[in-house]
Design brief:
Layout: H1 2-29, E1 42-49, H2 56-70, E2 78-82, E3 86-92, H3 97-104, E4 110-113, E5 119-122, E6 126-135, E7 142-150, H4 152-164, E8 171-174, E9 177-180, E10 192-198, H5 201-214, E11 220-228, H6 235-259, H7 261-283, H8 290-319, H9 324-356, H10 360-392, H11 416-441, E12 446-447, H12 449-452, E13 454-460, H13 467-482, E14 488-491, E15 497-502, H14 507-521, E16 528-533, H15 539-564, H16 567-591, E17 594-595, H17 597-626, H18 633-643, H19 645-665, H20 668-731
Parallel strand pairs: 12-17
Antiparallel strand pairs: 1-3, 1-11, 2-3, 4-5, 4-8, 6-7, 7-10, 8-9, 13-15, 13-16, 14-15
Helix pairs in contact: 1-7, 1-10, 6-7, 6-19, 7-8, 7-10, 8-9, 8-10, 8-17, 8-19, 9-10, 9-15, 9-17, 11-16, 13-14, 15-16, 15-17, 16-17, 16-20, 17-18, 17-20, 18-20, 19-20
Length: 732
């Protein structure tokens, strides 16, 4: 017994020491975490095209290629059009514009020439340029390469050039300077090639970078560069941190109050989780933005969920008479499949979103993937370790762990038609709202600057205004003229200049704004300039987000089908997921919530949350089917949902608390993000309890009915055939 207590004490000390050490390291690395433009600001660079009157196609293609280029610095970098021939690049988390300009390079002309000086193709035919390395099998030395990919036209031109120049050099010329001169070894017809013989990975990366920036459709020249402040203001960070701390404290108290000793173990594991995720955010140099915060919130919710699933199982085992030690062991074993399936399903979505998405989508996906892996680790290993340590320390009374009371099964399926009607009515209302919005404002949603673009007004004030002064004094003046509640402001570091971004303003509105600023703040009119700007979320980024979501949904469907050996589980899960997304979209349409870059993150968060909640219920249905006995399918589904009902409520409540505190304490822009997220959490809980199981039941009973009808028909045909055979024998 003494050995057990010693073992428990050492284990608990080790766990607490890990929390203290990693918590302190996490706190120390907080300042090293890269923050996005919305939270910390960064560098803003404006380029102007050398060509005086570029086409919209040329501008669009150049912007897209620049978006791909600047993602080397940050997933959250923004590229958008200003006026007719200017392109703005906003890169978060940096403060040295000159360094970025030097690394980014001057976008200039790129051509490929043969030894006679003849141009064989230009940089616009290059679709990608990537640095890489491999180990030489003969020498064992590292070799460095640049891989090039061409479009169809470029592939044909390069094939002809290499065929005619075998054994000769092809010169890659950037702004009249030779940057590489590889020797053609053979004819290259597959539309891609490799440049070898490079001295280091840095050399390879520099060459790849030069080729990428030189492959733009338009030649650009630098117009200006500034260091700009955070879009959401400096208070956004402090208020978000305070909200996170308060929300976490409330969740901790809730877990201990509801689950007693297991709750204590969960709190210790969650504390370690927070410390580790801060360290890894810094280590992997992930740029943290508001969507990234959403990914972390979702992963914390999933970490809590995993613990809730485990503790519910432990209570169930104690209720059937098992010892606490045995209940802990069995509880973890029975909870494993639901935790793994739920987390892996969401992880699949995160990986696909990172692979196919861009901008804020990739930022969200990276934080979510990191959070999921950590949440699984802390729930399955750290919580178990601490719980066993507490048990050995003497906390072995079953009352300290709670016993699950037998609940009378709730007839959820009996109310399925009502639930279906309510959901369809809400979704239908959303489509009606979209139609009304289209008729009244010209768009189905209240698109923000991120989607529609607008007007950027640069104002040089007579004094250096603080962020608070801008928010309390300047913004109300702007909103009174524009009627736009989505005004964005940024300070230009080291100057009195403020960038004000609003919806697109007419000539009269621009004049009225200039008059108001001159009258109110005595601003000289020549120090007020305005340009039209495009949306930071380009059509290509929207398409990438949609494609990524579709692929992620298909991959999740396949995984659920594989794990549950039943396509109806997968189909009903996806339908419930679509239901949750449509309900939230309905709220955006009817309430005219602003649809910006955070909208994408919000929808993706709901997708991840919804699928995880559904998996837990399906796991219980699968388990109960193995021990179904004489129980009807209706009873089985109702029992399964009832058994997981407490878990569904408690998990949703803890996640809701985190977001609700963020809503109460955050700045206005954060509230705009938190509100639809709360709706999504409530909707995800509703669908998992009331919709998902019912959908699976309807599909399953429908198939059973068809199978029975087919069997009856086959039997009738067989009987008819026998009777016909008998009749034939009698006639003979």
């Amino acid at each position: 017994m003494n050995n057990s207590k010693t073992k428990g004490l050492l284990g608990l000390i080790l766990a607490i020491a890990a929390v203290v050490v990693f918590g302190f390291m996490g706190y120390q690395t907080m300042n090293d975490i890269k923050l996005g433009l919305d939270l910390a600001g960064g560098v803003s660079i404006t380029y102007q095209t050398v060509k005086e009157d570029p086409t919209s196609e040329e501008m669009s293609d150049t912007i897209y290629k620049l978006q791909q280029r600047v993602q080397n610095y940050s997933n959250e970098a923004e590229v958008y059009q200003e006026g007719g021939n200017r392109i703005n690049i906003d890169i978060p988390g940096v403060s040295d514009a000159n360094a970025i300009l030097e690394e980014l390079g001057k976008p200039g002309s790129l051509i490929f020439c043969d030894e006679t000086g003849k141009t064989v193709l230009d940089g616009t035919k290059v679709t990608s340029a990537k640095a890489g390395m491999y180990k030489d099998e003969t020498t064992g030395l590292d070799k460095f390469i640049v891989s090039l990919t061409f479009n169809d036209e470029g592939a044909q031109a390069f094939a002809e050039a290499t065929k005619a120049n075998i054994g000769k050099q092809i010169f890659i010329i950037y702004d009249n300077a030779v940057v590489s001169s590889p020797v053609v070894q053979t004819e290259i017809t597959q539309g891609s090639c490799e440049i070898t013989g490079l001295g280091s990975f840095e050399v390879a990366e520099n060459l790849a970078s030069t080729i990428r920036i030189g492959s733009l459709s338009l030649e650009l020249e630098e117009l200006r560069s500034n260091v700009v402040g955070a879009k959401l203001g400096e208070t956004a960070i402090s208020t978000s941190l305070k909200a996170g701390a308060v929300g976490f404290a409330i969740v901790a108290v809730f877990m201990v109050g509801v689950y007693l000793i297991p709750g204590v173990a969960a709190v210790i594991a969650l504390c370690l989780y927070v410390g580790l995720i801060l360290i890894l955010l810094s280590a992997f140099e992930i740029t943290l933005t508001l969507p990234g915060v959403a990914g972390i919130i979702l992963s914390i919710g999933m970490a809590v969920d995993a613990n809730v699933i485990i503790f519910t199982r432990i209570k169930e085992e104690i209720a059937v008479g098992k010892t606490v030690k045995s209940a802990i062991k069995t509880g973890f074993q029975k909870a494993l499949s639901a935790i793994v399936d739920g987390n892996i399903t969401t992880l699949i979505a995160a990986l696909v979103l990172f692979w196919r998405g861009s901008g804020t989508v990739r930022g969200f996906a990276s934080t979510l993937a990191l959070g999921i892996i950590l949440s699984m680790f802390t729930a399955l290993f750290v919580t178990r370790f601490v719980l066993r340590a507490l048990y050995y320390l003497g906390f072995d009374n079953a009352k300290m762990y709670g016993a699950k009371k037998e609940r009378t099964p709730i007839n959820f399926l009996g109310k399925r038609n009502i639930c279906f009607i309510i959901s369809l009515a809400v979704i239908a209302a959303g489509f009606v709202g979209m139609g009304m919005n289209k008729a009244s404002i010209g768009d189905m949603f209240n698109y923000s600057l991120d989607f529609k673009g607008g007007t950027s007004t640069n104002v040089t004030f007579n004094e250096d205004l603080t962020l608070e002064q801008i928010s309390t004094d300047v913004v109300p003046v702007v909103e009174s003229i524009t009627g736009d509640a989505g005004t964005q402001t940024q300070k230009v570091a080291g100057t009195n200049e403020v960038i004000i971004k609003t919806r697109a303003l007419s000539v009269d509105e621009r004049q009225a704004l200039n008059d108001a600023l001159a009258e109110k703040f005595a601003v000289e009119r020549e120090k007020i300039t305005a340009e039209s700007i495009s949306g930071a979320v380009s059509d290509e980024m929207k398409k990438d987000a949609v494609v990524a979501t579709i692929i992620a949904t298909i991959c999740m469907l396949i995984y659920i089908w594989f794990r549950f050996k039943n396509i109806r589980f997968a189909a009903s899960a996806v339908l419930a997921l679509v239901h949750d997304v449509l309900v939230v979209i309905t709220c955006y349409a009817l309430a005219k919530w602003s649809v910006g870059s955070t909208f994408i993150a919000c929808i993706l968060t709901i997708v991840g949350y919804s699928i995880n909640a559904t998996i837990v219920i399906f796991d219980r249905i699968r388990e109960n089917m193995a021990d179904q006995g004489k129980q009807s399918l209706t009873e089985l589904v109702n029992d399964s949902i009832t058994q997981t009902f407490t878990r569904s409520i408690n998990t949703s409540l803890t996640t809701f608390i985190m977001v609700f505190v963020l809503y109460l304490m955050g700045v206005s822009s954060i509230r705009e993000f938190a509100l639809p997220l709360m709706v999504g959490i409530v909707c995800g809980t509703y669908s998992s309890v009331c919709i998902t199981g019912a959908l699976w039941y309807v599909m399953t009973t429908g198939k059973q009915k068809k199978d029975q009808e087919a069997a009856a028909l086959a039997a009738a045909e067989k009987k008819a055939a026998k009777e016909a055979k008998r009749s034939g024998k009698k006639e003979n």
